[in-house]
Write a structure and sequence with these properties.
18 helices, globular, three-stranded antiparallel beta sheet, 13 strands
Length: 502
């Protein structure tokens, strides 16, 4: 046996000179973050000076690090507490995002359930009760997101209509909240009459666009939904009507979700070409979760997280290069993370907060009114695992939801300050994970960090963004990232970053 030795030198450390911060290495820099979300990028020599207590008044970094709360000297605890409160306010405001599945009927030709069976559609009385329940929230902003389990909620258009009408009427009459209503549609059941009704009732449209025609239609072959030509036709229709109605183009635009399959991984530029050609303003990159795909289909469309992250990095860099040439097309997940890094605010993405927003900031509803902490929990129930069912909208009041043992367990399992590895991770102020996804992938609410796909994804995205922000030779890219953050804040509404494309 060969003996090997390694000599380690303890850093010079003066703890009484330091505030509380976390740190890690990004490229050739050291990123330092605080619980208030403030950050600094230091050299190795500057980190050594910080740890050794040599950054004192007169040092070039003293004023900046004192302002961030990294130094004990002059630490303003009241200001730090105020910044922490501002950043976590969306976790305390109440259930803001309500995801409502109005039908289980699949699109004809898809792998979903066959249409026409009783019990697959939400009835009108349940729709009305859910709209009323959502507006009981203490949150000043409420978003209703209407979807169908197999992609097309417009197959139960009567329930969509009742939900929208009741929510609008109740809100105007009594609650006065900032109410946002959106529908996730693949356009398979869209008609001009329905489109005009959605426009007249201020219902926002989110659809699927999986790339150029061959790629989109290949995905639709197993996922269902409209063919590429139909999606383009309705995209053009709504874009034209928004312009005719003089709607704010920042807020009123069709948003598209992308299903990233194995075939997509090598065609990021083709996908961006397609989004640019259609005049879209955002592209939402997200990995394809295995549990949302039929087991027989996964071997042909699935991939490892490392492959996705390589795709994400290449596509993000391509988007930034096009933005430097004048294109205005931003990546949605990066924009949301950037609001956490570059501002003192938070757009309220329920799956990027600590504790996770399932049951406290987000609720999902099945066609029978059954309530769940989030939509993954509802899908687990649809697949036969009722672990996360917490009651029915007909008889469970919102104040009782947050007291439910399941919701409390989810909150406890996702508090990053109490999680091994998360508590010391520099990305903690910008991160979050879903215990429901942990359960679906690891059969454990807490999950093992090294096997947590969300942790891996969020860490990789933040790392790339800090690499870009730390590149002092590329002011143009840093300006673009600032613009993406500001745009995300302007249209902020309760949302989630993990959204199943319809």
């Amino acid at each position: 046996m060969t003996e090997r030795s390694l000599t380690l030198t303890a850093p010079e450390l003066v703890p009484e000179a330091l505030g509380f911060f976390r740190w890690g290495r990004v490229a050739d820099r050291v990123v330092v973050t605080t619980d208030g979300g403030d950050w600094a990028l230091l050299s190795e020599a500057e980190l050594a000076d910080l740890l050794a207590g040599r950054i004192v008044e007169g040092h070039p970094l003293f004023a900046e690090l004192q302002r961030l709360g990294v130094l004990r000297d002059g630490l303003d605890l009241d200001a730090l507490a105020a910044r922490m409160a501002q950043r976590s306010r969306t976790a305390r405001r109440g259930a803001a995002l309500h995801v409502v599945t109005v039908t289980l009927r699949g699109t004809p030709g898809s792998t979903g359930a066959a249409g026409g069976d009783a019990g697959l559609d939400m009835d009108l009385d349940t729709a009305e009760r859910i709209a009323e329940r959502a507006l009981e929230s203490t949150s000043p902003a409420v978003s209703l997101e209407l979807q169908g389990q197999c992609g097309e909620p417009l197959r139960n258009f009567d329930a969509v209509r009742r939900l929208v009408e009741v929510a609008r009427e109740r809100n105007a009459r009594s609650t006065g909240k900032q109410l946002t209503i959106g529908v996730l549609t693949n356009f398979a059941e869209m008609t001009e009459e329905r489109a005009e009704w959605l426009l007249a009732n201020d219902v926002q449209i989110t659809t699927s666009l999986d790339g150029p025609a061959a790629l989109h239609d290949a995905v639709r072959a197993w996922k269902g939904g409209a063919a590429h030509a139909d999606v383009v036709r309705w995209l053009d229709y709504f874009t034209r009507r928004y312009a005719e109605l003089k709607r704010d183009p920042e807020r009123w635009q069709v948003r598209a979700l992308l299903t990233v399959t194995r075939d997509t991984l090598g065609r990021g530029q083709d996908v961006v070409d397609e989004y640019e050609a259609r005049g879209l303003r955002t592209i939402h990159l997200q990995p394809l979760p295995a549990w949302r795909v039929p087991a027989a289909t996964w071997p042909s469309v699935g991939y490892a997280m490392d492959a996705y992250l390589d795709f994400y990095r290449r596509t993000l860099d391509d988007l930034l290069a096009r933005n430097r040439r004048g294109l205005d097309l931003r990546e949605q997940t990066a924009s949301i993370v950037l609001t956490k890094i570059l501002s003192s605010d938070d757009v309220g993405a329920v799956d990027l907060q600590s504790p996770y927003g399932g049951g406290t900031a987000q609720l999902a509803y099945g066609v029978d009114g059954q309530m769940f902490p989030d939509d993954d929990a509802r899908l687990a129930d649809a697949m036969g695992d009722a672990l996360f069912a917490i009651g029915n909208a007909r008889d469970l009041a919102l104040p009782d939801v947050v007291k439910h043992p399941t919701v409390r367990a989810i909150a406890a399992a996702s508090l990053l300050d109490a999680q091994p590895m998360c508590a010391t991770c520099w990305n903690k102020p910008y991160c979050g994970f879903s215990p429901v996804q942990n359960y679906l992938t690891q059969r454990d609410l807490f999950g093992h960090r090294l096997r947590c796909l969300q942790c891996k994804e969020h860490f990789a995205i933040s790392t790339r963004l800090f690499e870009l922000l730390g590149d002092e030779s590329d002011a143009a890219t840093r300006e673009i990232l600032g613009r993406w953050s500001a745009a995300a804040l302007r249209v902020a509404a309760p949302t989630r970053i993990s959204i199943p494309p319809p």
